[in-house]
């Protein structure tokens, strides 16, 4: 076709306005990592780290503070010294554990649409977790409360790109012996995503399992068929597993619920100062914990993990989003590949405000995780102060990045329609594509719609109040909370849960176990 464009475009535009506005549909629930894997170590070096870790387990050992755990190791033929609580694990035990630990785990939810496949190649984002403080522009920085935890649960529920709940904020206004009730109340009534459970002693864990099974109407056999909750197990580096963490590994393995083993190793502090040295230690501790789960119950769901970064050698403070953090993430991914398990990594920020430093650190750490092939990336949104605070505004601004990454996981079409030869035919040299039929059919749905970014020019932006991204993020989280679009929950199940919590609270709750 040649000649000037015909006037028919005006009719197309008018008719487009007369019909319902198209809705852009995206699926952020089942992401797969599309990025090529980066390597910092040669294959020989990865095997050398693994070999050294096995030697450490076999010749140096590690301290296991829980007598029950030491007894399990001893029964399996591991050398145990009760006088100094040391355990030595042979490489044969590690090899057997890696054979039985499942490479793919299905995390179940009461809503089947929220089921999560946890396996190598999957990509799961999680919000910041474990913070004792919360902050936002309107209420400031404060000790975390149950209100904050419930609000963050609702915000996480809103975003499909965050498919798993986490312990975003510690509700410090709830006593520790009752806190697991508050966690289950919020997670089961305000969300239909996979809930988190703290491993803080058998009494609390067993009560959580009871609440979950009852709420979902599951028998013991059904509850143990697939995991319905998960926990994070942090070893006490260097080479130590404390009482609550060892007990958590045992409790979750027995019930076939998910343990995500995550040594928290900081280079130059509780780990060697080199990346390879820190990963050797982290790998050692992760293998020891994985072995314990498989000795308790072969086939118990367990995830490899690491959170390895460095410290500021001037102050000793943990720092994140550094080149060393990225190198450690990539190296950990190579070790996870070697053992054949899905794995957990993390990004984060040591910044005190949701400023450029915080954004840079979080995003740099995020890309390290992505290029390392992490199955789950924790602290991907909202994390500040090295985990001391989660920010409502940073949750939103970080989600802009996460959703943009999720868009890159979607296949890019290159079929006949996408190649747009009809548009190239319609638009003449020197023209534009704004009014082309191909554009008019797609302009409302083709591009990612920003969550908080503002693409207007300076004049328009100034006329609207000149708000920065953090200020705009306040409006976003407030709008989500005001809409209160929580999932439908069977009121009879809620009543039964509340009655259980009231009864257990009246009986004194369940004190956590300390190390």
CA distance, first residue to last residue: 78 Å
- Output mean pLDDT: 95
Instruction: Please tell me how large the radius of gyration is.
Output: 25 Å
- The structure class reads alpha/beta
Major pleated sheet: 7 strands, mixed
Walk me through the structure.
With 515 residues, the chain is α/β, with parallel strands linked by helices. The protein has a domain at 68-408: Alpha-Beta Barrel (TIM Barrel), CATH 3.20.20. Helices cover 44% and strands 12% of the residues. It has 19 helices and 20 strands. It has helices at residues 8-18, 43-60, 67-75, 91-100, 146-158, 179-189, 202-216, 220-225, 243-254, 275-296, 323-339, 356-372, 392-408, 416-419, 421-426, 437-440, 458-463, 469-483, 491-506, and strands at residues 31-32, 62-64, 79-81, 86-88, 105-107, 116-118, 122-125, 133-135, 142-143, 230-233, 240-241, 258-261, 264-267, 302-305, 307-311, 318-319, 343-346, 376-378, 383-384, 389-391. It has a seven-stranded mixed sheet, with helices on one face. It has a four-stranded mixed sheet with strand order 3-4-2-11. It has a four-stranded mixed sheet with strand order 9-8-20-19. It starts with 7 loop residues before the first helix and ends in a 9-residue tail after the last helix. The model is unreliable at 1-18 (pLDDT under 50).
């Amino acid at each position: 076709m040649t000649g000037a464009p015909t006037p028919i475009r005006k009719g197309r535009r008018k008719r487009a306005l007369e019909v319902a506005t198209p809705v852009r549909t995206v699926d952020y629930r089942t992401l797969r990592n599309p990025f090529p894997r980066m390597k910092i170590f040669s294959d020989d070096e990865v095997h050398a780290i693994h070999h050294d870790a096995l030697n450490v387990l076999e010749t140096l050992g590690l301290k296991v503070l829980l007598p029950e755990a030491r007894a399990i190791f001893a029964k399996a033929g591991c050398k145990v010294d009760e006088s100094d609580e040391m355990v030595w694990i042979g490489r044969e035990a590690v090899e057997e554990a890696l054979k039985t630990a499942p490479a793919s785990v299905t995390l179940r939810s009461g809503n089947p649409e929220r089921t999560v496949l946890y396996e190598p190649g999957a990509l799961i984002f999680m919000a910041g977790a474990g913070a004792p403080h919360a902050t936002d522009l309107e209420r400031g920085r404060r000790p975390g409360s149950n209100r904050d935890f419930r609000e963050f649960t609702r915000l996480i529920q809103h975003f499909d790109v965050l498919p798993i709940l986490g312990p975003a904020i510690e509700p410090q206004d709830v006593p520790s012996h009752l806190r697991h009730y508050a966690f289950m109340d919020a997670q089961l009534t305000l969300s239909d995503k996979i809930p988190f459970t703290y491993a803080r002693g058998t009494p609390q864990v067993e009560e959580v399992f009871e609440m979950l099974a009852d709420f979902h109407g599951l028998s013991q056999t059904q509850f143990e068929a697939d995991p319905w909750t998960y926990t994070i197990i942090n070893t006490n580096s260097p080479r130590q597993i404390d009482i609550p963490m060892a007990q958590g590994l045992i409790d979750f393995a027995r019930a076939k619920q998910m343990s995500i083993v995550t040594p928290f190793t900081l280079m130059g502090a509780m780990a060697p100062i080199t990346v390879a040295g820190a990963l050797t230690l982290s790998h050692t501790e992760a293998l020891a914990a994985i072995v314990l789960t498989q000795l308790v119950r072969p086939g118990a769901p367990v995830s490899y993990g690491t959170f390895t970064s460095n410290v500021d050698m001037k102050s000793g403070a943990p720092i994140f989003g550094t080149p060393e953090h990225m190198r450690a993430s990539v190296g950990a991914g190579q070790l996870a590949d070697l053992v054949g398990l899905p794995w957990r990594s993390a990004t984060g920020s040591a910044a005190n405000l949701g400023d450029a430093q915080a954004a840079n650190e979080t995003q740099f750490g995020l890309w390290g995780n992505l290029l390392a092939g992490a199955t789950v990336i924790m602290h991907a949104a909202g994390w500040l102060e090295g985990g001391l605070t989660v920010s409502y505004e940073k949750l939103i601004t970080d989600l802009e990045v996460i959703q943009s990454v999720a868009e890159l996981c979607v296949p890019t079409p290159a079929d006949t329609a996408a190649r747009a030869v009809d548009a190239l035919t319609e638009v003449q040299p020197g023209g534009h594509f704004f009014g082309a039929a191909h554009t008019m059919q797609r302009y409302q749905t083709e591009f990612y719609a920003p969550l908080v970014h503002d693409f207007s020019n300076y004049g328009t932006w100034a006329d609207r109040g000149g708000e920065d991204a953090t200020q705009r993020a306040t409006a976003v989280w407030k709008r989500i909370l005001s809409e209160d679009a929580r999932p439908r929950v069977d009121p009879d199940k809620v009543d039964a849960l509340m009655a259980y919590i009231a009864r257990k609270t009246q009986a004194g709750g369940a004190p956590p176990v300390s190390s």
